[in-house]
Write a structure and sequence with these properties.
Layout: H1 20-33, E1 47-50, E2 54-59, E3 62-67, H2 80-94, E4 102-110, E5 115-117, E6 125-131, H3 139-144, H4 150-166, H5 179-196, H6 200-229, E7 233-235, E8 245-248, E9 251-254, E10 266-268, H7 269-282, H8 286-300, H9 306-328, H10 333-352, E11 361-365, H11 377-383, E12 386-389, H12 390-397, H13 416-435, E13 440-443, H14 449-462, E14 466-472, H15 475-488, H16 497-506, H17 512-515, E15 518-522, H18 529-542
Parallel strand pairs: 11-13, 11-14, 12-13, 14-15
Antiparallel strand pairs: 1-2, 2-3, 3-6, 4-5, 4-6, 7-10, 8-9
């Protein structure tokens, strides 16, 4: 795919009509369409929602979305042919993720005074025909009700990962995803913020984020180019936030991808993911942001994305800050004050990316069934830790999905050599994430002192604190858990009771020096992380590597 030069973001300009006559004609058309006789099916309780680029007609279970005749630079709907093409593109893009919602493109026929959706004769406009959904199904609304759970985000991460895996790949040299194309809209955000706001405090904070973004770009330019060459730049969604996510028949889905500007969707998959991570953080749920990011990383194995993730989070926050700044000039009084506070909040989130928490390296040690994965979730959500699991990475080394059986692999995947490679891969991922500024939890049995010592040495080399999370439970509990998990299937771990018995016989107890950096967690009941975190923090502040 050859892309156009990077264009302004969808919010970078205020709507200016191609001509007042075209907009007035559109208004008359939309007004005339809000009559039952305009539809081929029974239509009652007809409503209309206006966005800055579309008019959305609602009637019963049906939705019809018409493009406004605008030319804003970053989009051009000025002619009937362009609007038709944009409708077809919207249909194509969104059928990738929500075919049940996007039913087709229909002509609007008749006249401005007596239009009809469908019908015979020449088209005077076009509409995207959609299935209507309840607004409370939007994930933003689900979050607001306090009902957005980790399980939904885990399924969403799989949906996003599978979507990205199937998306078309940008070719190097095609104009998308190279270093200059990545950074041009970042610079533009700061320039436009200064254009639309004169708030001294706001601009001073934005300058901090801008200096950091420039420094990051200087360091990351080769990474952007490499990720483009490796196929990480794809035809993504482009606007992946909670307002464009829905629970459709109980499953999370993406919809409303950017159709009007290819440069805004032909992006690094990390830039797509960063939008949702930023949105969850800004809404006061960094725990859910960490949950989603970890689930996506585990599904894709794209831990290299952590090198650019904070850069993209800051970029997405500044896009939203710029949008709020543009709105400032249109408001006054309490509404303007609220908008300014919103703008400051997004800038503060961008600035927060410049000073991430001190990274550390933790290992989750324990036999199968001890709760290393399930019971470390609280740490991940509380501290934004990146978890990398041996059960998953071992299978990835053999080209297997986490839930796939390894029975067909000749020689098996649990040999001594396979274990050596697995622990080496965990160390490689951990080192990369830590050097990118992220705390890491390596999740494996770590039954042998030599395995634990290797990661302690890695922490010393990286000059970060090291801690052992020692998970355990009574043996009867361990056996029951492992048996139940094996019977249920579908888990990355394939350990059965026989494997557990071998682990119990072979595990080496923590040595005295290891106990000084260990937090022991009896998972008979779920750990009370609010108190255990204080113990962990105390270790992290006192046990820096020599």
């Amino acid at each position: 795919m050859t892309c156009p030069d990077a264009s302004p973001d969808a919010s970078s300009a205020t709507p200016d009509a191609v001509g007042d006559g075209a907009i007035e004609r559109h208004r008359r058309l939309i007004s005339a369409l809000q009559r039952a006789e305009a539809f081929a099916h029974p239509a009652g309780d007809i409503g209309c929602i206006e966005t800055h680029i579309s008019s959305v007609l609602l009637t019963g279970d049906e939705v019809y979305k018409l493009k406004k005749p605008l030319d804003l630079g970053f989009l051009n709907f000025s002619t009937l042919e362009r609007r038709h093409a944009a409708c077809e593109e919207e249909l194509r893009l969104n059928r990738r993720t929500a075919p049940e919602l996007y039913l087709g493109v229909v002509p609007v026929t008749g006249s401005i005074e007596a239009p009809r959706i469908g019908g015979e004769g020449g088209a005077i406009d076009y509409a995207v025909h959609m299935r209507r959904f309840p607004q409370d199904a939007l994930l933003g609304e689900v979050l607001q009700r306090g009902q957005l759970e980790a399980g939904v985000l885990d399924r969403l991460a799989r949906h996003v990962a599978d979507f990205h895996a199937a998306a078309a790949v940008a070719a190097a040299g095609g104009g998308c995803g190279d270093a200059q194309a990545v950074h041009a809209p970042v610079r533009q955000n700061f320039a436009q913020l200064r254009e639309f706001s004169d708030d001294a405090e706001l601009l001073a904070q934005a300058e901090r984020a801008e200096r950091w973004s420039e420094a990051q770009f200087a360091q990351l330019a080769p990474v952007f180019e490499r990720r483009l060459a490796e196929g990480r730049v794809r035809e993504c969604h482009g606007d992946l936030h909670l307002g464009n996510l829905i629970l459709l028949d109980g499953e999370p889905r993406l919809f409303d991808a950017i159709e009007f500007n290819p440069a805004l969707r032909w992006i690094d998959v990390a830039a797509d993911v960063a939008f949702l991570v930023m949105d969850l953080q800004q809404r006061g749920r960094p725990d859910l942001a960490a949950c989603f990011l970890n689930a996506w990383l585990e599904r894709t194995g794209d831990y290299d994305s952590l090198r650019v993730m904070r850069y993209y989070i800051a970029y997405r926050a500044m896009v939203r800050a710029k949008i709020a700044a543009i709105r400032l000039g249109q408001l006054d009084g309490a509404a303007r004050a609220a908008c300014l506070a919103e703008c400051r909040g997004y800038v503060a989130l961008a600035v927060a990316q410049t000073a991430p928490p001190q990274p550390f390296l933790a290992i989750a040690s324990g036999v199968s069934g001890s709760g290393k994965t399930s019971q470390s979730q609280g740490l991940i959500e509380a501290r934004g830790v990146i978890r990398v699991r041996a059960d998953v990475e071992r299978k990835r080394l053999f080209g297997l999905a986490p839930e796939a059986s390894s029975a067909a692999v000749e020689g098996g995947i649990y040999t001594a050599e396979a274990s050596r490679r697995t622990y080496a891969r965990l160390a490689e991922i951990a080192a990369g994430a830590i050097m990118a500024g992220w705390p890491v939890l390596a999740d494996a049995t770590f039954l042998r002192r030599s395995q634990r010592a290797a990661f302690a040495e890695l922490a010393r080399r990286l000059q970060v604190p090291f801690v052992i999370l020692a998970f355990d439970a009574p043996e009867a509990t361990l056996r029951a858990r492992v048996a139940a998990r094996a019977a249920q299937g579908g888990d990355a771990s394939e350990a059965d009771v026989a494997v557990l018995e071998m682990q119990l016989a072979q595990r080496e107890a923590l040595a005295s020096d290891e106990k000084t950096v260990a937090v022991t967690l009896d998972t008979t009941a779920a750990p009370y992380w609010s108190s255990r975190l204080r113990e962990l923090d105390a270790l992290l502040t006192t046990h820096y590597p020599a």
